[in-house]
Structures are given as C-alpha cells and as structure tokens.
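Box 3.1 — From sequence to structure: Metallophosphoesterase
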Amino acid sequence: MNKVIAIGDIHGSTKWRNIIDGNKDAQIVFLGDYLDPYVEYDCDEILDNLIEIIDFKRNNKDRVVLLLGNHDLHYISSDAEICTRFDFRIARKAGILFIENFKLFQYAFQLKDIIFTHAGISQRWFEKDFKGNIEHNIADQLNNPTDNQIEALCRIGAGRGGEEGRVGGIFWADRSELKDPLHGFTQVVGHNRVEDITKWVYPDDNKIIFCDCLENGKYFEMHI
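Predicted structure (token representation):
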C-alpha cells in the first residue's frame, strides 16, 4: 500500500517542511492557498516559502501534487475574485511565480475513487452547474474545463458571499454547500478551517475529509 499525505492551506506557514521530512517516500498533495497568511510575515519570507514549495515539486514531480486555491487564483488572473488578505506588496512577484510555473500546478487530483481539490465538489454543482460526466475521470474534467465550464469552476457560492442559491466551485465551496458531496467518492479538501482533521460521512457512498488545520500542525494521512 502507498502512503498519501494531504497538507492543508499553507498561508505562508513553513510547517509543511516537518511533515515532508517525516514522510520521505509518501505521495504529497498540497491543497492550495500558499499565500495570504493570517499572521504577519515578512514579504520575502512569504515568497521564499512559495519558491521552496515550487522547487520541492520540481525536484519530485512524480510524488508531489500542487493544487491551486482561491487565494492563489487572485495572483494569477485579474478576473479572479480578490480574497481577504490579498497582499499588494507581493502581488506582482507572486503572479510571476505562479504564471512561470503554472504547469507544475493543477486544479484537482484523483487516486481511484479519492478526489483532492481545494474546496470540494457538491453533487448538485457537478451535475447542474459544471455539467460534468460522473462516468469519466473527475479530476481530468476539472483540470481540462471547456470554455463553458470555467465560470462554474471558479464560482463563489452563497456561503462565501456569492449570489443567493448558488453553490461554489472547487476553489470556493463552503462547508455549508457540501451537504451532498459527489456521490460514490471520498473527497479530501482544505479551504474550510478546522481544528483537526474532520470527516463527514453521507448515505450515498460519499465522504468528505476537511484538512485545513496546518496551523495546528495537523495533516491527513491515508494508505491506498
């Protein structure tokens, strides 16, 4: 069996280093949000931490996955919604880092029936809004959206200040919008802060595991 480690939202923290040091042979999945810390960091420290993560991926391409989160998109595209704590001091340099290394990042990752995204996938959003095909590989569809799917992919739902009645896409979905996650799959997500790794189990052979607790030194480990 192969060990898989999921590391929740980074937000400038260097605690990920200790995790990878103790799991040298594991598949490592970063769940996104590398910048915009909750506490004050020096600008160079924030950028150096992102550079170190990118270098770690570049040197371990087969076993490291870098997902993107909502706090990353707003440095990449001027069309992305500006999130709280957007740092204008580093915006230009951060944007260059993301764009120059964009091929090292992805939107989703899948191992069998386990799907990793930043914020999660609801059944309703996938079927009605994204118009995905449940019979095909989910991550492939999310990583290669058509022009007609991009708006839904980046959508902000009502739980995070979007239009009432809307469900957020994989960068923005709030836990209140994940009451019926994608049927038949286990999802591993960040975005929604928790004190410790938290699992929700549903009746349609679907589970969702919340991992945004790196600030407490917590991370998710599984064997596949």
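Summary of the box: Residues 3-223 form a domain with the Purple Acid Phosphatase; chain A, domain 2 fold (CATH 3.60.21.10).
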